[in-house]
Every structure is written in structure tokens, then in C-alpha cells.
Amino acid sequence: MLSILIPTYNYNVFPLVKEVSEECIAEKISFEIIVLDDASQNFHTENNEINNLDNCSYSILNQNIGRSAIRNLLSTKASFDNLLFLDADVRIISNQFIKKYVSFIKSNSNYGVVYGGIVYQENKPNDNQLLRWIYGNEREALSAEKRNENVYISFLTLNFLIKKEVFQTVRFNEDIPNLRYEDLLFSFDLKTNRIPLQHINNQVVHNGIETSEVFMQKTNDSLKGLKFLLSKNYLPADYAKISNVFNLLYQTKLLFLINFIYKMRKNSFEKNLLSNKPSLFIYDIYRLGYFSQL
């Protein structure tokens, strides 16, 4: 019935596995939960407890292979036709989580991919985590109705269901650098192959919000990753919003203005984004400026 696949790296995933397995048992379905540790150094003792749970396994890879390759590897170990991918740092917020996916499978036998969505904690985090929290709430924590307005672009890889036969057709690209944007490329490949992608309201909470400083570094890394995807023609320039805007500015000869603003205000932009009142408008200008320098 359901293979639940969880890649992890330096994270205690046992509480998540225990809760999901209890929901599967309550639903009386055939299931397995497979956790692969991408050669991390921490939480081995805690995560080894997963092996004491029925139909659950945890193992550690000998070397780090990255986010794309580990998801592909997980799929090869799955026994069932329905694959549910979860990130290690999510938290289940409904005791109907598995039930919703099972109900969807039973009523939509020919589905391709289903994305359940994400939400963020309601309480305001520490000041040094505000940028990630604000961005997540404004740009990622969207209802299924809102996500369906832009089906493929709204897809994230932290909570999605996919048919095993579909995943054998469209897999994560292991040739790209481990710099993020693998979810965007995956969604583009789904679109190119005309794989139906549906959005439902079956959200999980994203735990472990990183500091604004770490989020900024990940932002820069992801833009480098996007630049690589574009340079290798893995993605068209108009698929990602930022590269689309970049091209429009280039074509209208207005890119120099962004470059000038970025060079003059880079330090003040960073100061704002690392402050207790970060602006997403400034964040967007910063990203565009950084991207134009690559």
C-alpha cells in the first residue's frame, strides 16, 4: 500500500517515524517506513530506535550522496506502489495525515504526484530566525487552492506522494550540484513529461527554522544552483521567477539599475535581512542583485 521514505542528515527523526507508524497502524494499512541517513555524525543512537518499530528501518550510508541521490536510492528500496516522501525536519499536525493520503489513493487510482503542503509555527521565533519564518509563511505556507493557481511552481519536496511507476520515469537529477533548486527542476521535469500534479490540504509543520544568517547563505547557494541549471539548459529562463525577471530587466536594459542599487546598498540590505524587521521586498532585491553578479 504505502512506502514512506525519509532522508535524514544530523537530525533526530525517531519521533516523526513513531507518530507516522502509529497512524499507519491505526489505519490498518500495509506500510513500511525507510529512513536513510546521508552519512551524518549525530543522532545515531536516537535514530537506531527506529529499527525496533514494526515495518520500520534506519540505516546509515557510508558516504554522503546528496539530496537528489538519496531520494532516488530510497525509491529503489520501496516495496509498495505508493511512495510518500517526507523530510526529516517536519512535524505531523493532524492524526488524519495518513488517512487523508490513503483516502486520496483509494479515490484517485491514476494519480501522478500529490503535494500536501507546509505550514510554519504560529508563534514568532527568535529575532535571529525571523527572515526564514516570514519567508516561509508568506511564500511557502499556502493553501491547496492558492498552490493550484501555479501547480508546478508551488511544488516542494518535503511532503509529497508519488506513484512508483511515475518516479521511475521522472527521478531527481543526480548530475546537478547539491545547491538546492532540485525541487524546481523535479517539478519542471514533471511538467515536461505531462505528469499530473495535484495539491491537497494535508500540511506538515516545518521544524528547525534556521537562523537568518544561515538562511542567507542557503539563499546564495540556491542562486548558484539555479545559475548552473540555466547554464546547462536544464531549465528555461522563464520557469523560475527570479531568472524570468532578470531576463526582462536585461532585455529592457534596466539591469544596470539593479546592479547599481545592489552594489551601493548591499551592506544595508544584509543588515535589514539579519535584523528583527526583515523585509521580503529587500530580500527579493538582494536576490536579484546577487543573481546578476553570478
How would you characterize the overall build of this protein?
It is a single chain. This protein has 294 residues and is of the alpha/beta class. It is 47% helix and 15% strand. It has twelve helices and ten strands. The chain has helices at 14-27, 44-48, 67-77, 97-107, 130-140, 144-147, 164-169, 182-192, 212-231, 241-251, 255-273, 280-293, and strands spanning 2-8, 31-37, 56-60, 82-86, 90-92, 113-115, 118-119, 159-163, 197-199, 204-206. Helix 2 (44-48) links the parallel strand 2 and strand 3 (56-60). Helix 10 (241-251) crosses helix 12 (280-293) and helix 11 (255-273) crosses helix 12 (280-293).
Beta-strand fraction estimate: 5-15%
Mean pLDDT equals: 96
Number of strands: 10
Q: Return the domain count.
A: 2
Tell me the distance between the termini: 46 Å
Instruction: Return the CATH architecture of the largest domain.
Output: Alpha-Beta Complex
**What kind of assembly state do the chains in view correspond to?**
single chain
How would you describe the shape? Answer: globular
CATH homology-level superfamily of the largest domain: Spore Coat Polysaccharide Biosynthesis Protein SpsA, Chain A
Tell me roughly what share of residues is in helical segments: 40-55%
Q: What is the CATH topology of the largest domain?
A: Spore Coat Polysaccharide Biosynthesis Protein SpsA, Chain A
Encode the helix/strand succession as letters.
EHEHEHEEHEEHHEHHEEHHHH
Total number of helices: 12
Arrangement of strands in the largest sheet:
3-2-1-4-8-6-9
Helix/strand-derived category reads alpha/beta
Q: State the name of the first-level CATH class of the largest domain.
A: Alpha Beta
**Major sheet attributes:** 7 strands, mixed
- The Rg value, from CA coordinates, equals 20 Å
Low-confidence stretches: none
